Amino acid sequence: MSKIIPIDRLLEMPLNIPDYQRPYKWTLKNVSDLFCDIDTAINDSRRPDHTDFKYRVGSVILHNNNGQCDIVDGQQRLITLSLIKHAIDPQYSTNLLKHEFGDKVSVEHIFDNYRFIREWLSMHKEQTEDYKHAFDDLLEVVVLEVDEISEAFQLFDSQNTRGKELYPHDLLKAYHLREMDDYPFEKMSLIKHWEDISPEKIRELFSLYLFPILNWSRKENSRAFLSQDIDTYKGVDAKCVYTYAQRVRKAMPCFQINEPICAGSEFFKMVDHYINLLENLKNEVQTDPKFSEIQTIIDANTKSVKDKNGNENIKQFASTGFRYAVNLFYCALLFYYDRFHLLDEMAVKKLFVWAMMIRIDMDNLGMDTINNYAIGNKDKNYTNRIPMFFNIATARSNREIANMNIQIIRDTDQAQSQTWETLYRSVKMLMRVIK
User: Regarding beta strands 55-65 and 68-73, do their DSSP bridges make them parallel or antiparallel, or are they unpaired?
Assistant: First the structure.
C-alpha cells in the first residue's frame, strides 16, 4: 500500500529498526544536504504561485510486523529527521529516539550528527520557526507499507537508488538473531562482532564461495545469491526432531560447506570460520615455498594499478576470465580443505591446474562456462570434464583428489588463444609435463 503522509505523522508511527539493518552511518555532509533540502522547501513555499506547497523528502519502505513498522528502507533519513526534530524541541520523543543502538558505529554517528545539528540550528536561530513550520506543514514522504517481508525487499531492490543495498546475508542475520531471543547477552555480542566484519567480505563469502560450492557439489549450476535463496542457510531449528537434525546438532561446531548448520549462533560462527579459513588458505598459497610456482603464475597475470592517491598498491587480474579461473581454484581449494583438513601438495597443484585449464581452453571465459566446467558438463569440448566439486564431496580420502588424472596437453598443444600461451607453458612446467 502506497500513501503520502506528513513527516511528523510518519515519525509518530510505531517505527522499529530491525536486526538486519546496518548501523546508522550518515555523515555530517549527509546531514548538511538534508538541511539544504529543508531550506529549499522553505524558500519554495514562499513563492506566490506555490499555494498549499508540499516538499517530499524521499520515500520509505515499511514492513508491518505484527503492528510494528519495521524500517526496510529509509532508516538513515528517518533517524536524522528525528534528531533534527528533537534538537528543535527537546521535549519531542519518538520510537526511533528510544531505540537502543548496540553498536558503537551508530552511537558515534548519532552523537556527532546531533552535535552538528545543534550547531547548525544555533547558527540559524532566525530560521527556527521556519524549521518548525517545515515539520508541521511542508515536509511529506511517500510510504510503501507491506505485510510480507519478501515483498518489502522486492520493493527495496526496485526503488532504492541512494541507500546501501540490503543483501541476503542481512536477512540471514535477522533470522538467526531471532532464533537467539532467549540469549540476549550472546546475541548482543554477536551483533557487535558481525558489525566489525566488512560487509563486502560477508557478501563475497556467500556469493563467490559458499553458495557456488554448494551448488557445484550437487552437480547443479550456480547463480547469483539472492534473497530468495536464504532458506539454504537457515539451518536446523533447535526443536526439529528429524534424525538428520539430531546428527547436525551433534556435529556442531564442525562445519562442512555442503552440510546444514544449527540455527542461531552457529550461523555467525560459521561465517567467521570460513572468512578466516579462506584468508588463511590464500595466505598459505602466497607464502608456502611448496606453492611458490602457483603464486608466480598468478602474479604473472596480475598487474598493479594506482589508487586514488596515485600509489601503485592495488592488485588487479589481467582479465575478468583469469579472475574467474583463480576464484574457481580457491573455491576448489576451500572445499578440499573443508573436507579433509589437509594441504597435500599434489592435490593443491592439481586443483590449480584443473582451474587454469578452462582459461587455456577458451577464447572468452564467462560465468556460464565456469558453471559448466565446475559440474563436469560432458557435452562441452573442454580438455577436462571432471565434476570436481562432486568428486570432492564424495571422496573418502584426500588421495582420491591427489591421484586424479588431470589432462594438461591439449590436442593442438597450444592455448586456444595466443594470449594464454604463456599460461599454458607455465601450467605444463608446474606439472613437469613436456610433449
Answer: antiparallel
Q: What is the pLDDT of residue 239?
A: 83
Please check whether residue 46 is in contact with residue 117, taking contact to mean a CB–CB distance below 8 angstroms. Answer: no
Query: Is 89 in contact with 134 (CB distance < 8 Å)?
Result: no
Q: Which residues contact 285 (CB under 8 A, 6 or more apart)?
A: 291, 294, 295, 333, 348
Inter-residue contact 427 to 408 (CB < 8 Å)? yes
CB atoms within 10 A of CB 174: 17
Q: Which helix (H) or strand (E) holds 135?
A: none
Kindly indicate the confidence band of residue 163, based on its pLDDT and cuts at 50, 70 and 90: very low
Give the pTM. 0.69
Contact 312, 305 (CB under 8 A): yes
Q: Which three cell numbers stand for residue 142?
A: 511517500
Which positions ≥6 away from 420 have C-beta within 8 Å?
359, 360
> Of 313, 292, 324, 318, whose CA–CA distance to 303 is shortest?
318
State the helix-helix crossing angle for 75-88 and 28-45, rounded to 10 degrees: 70
Q: Are 326 and 209 in contact (CB under 8 A)?
A: no
Q: Tell me: pLDDT of 407 over 60.
A: yes
Query: Would you say how long the chain is, in residues?
Result: 435
Task: For the chain, report the end-to-end CA distance as a whole number of angstroms.
Answer: 69
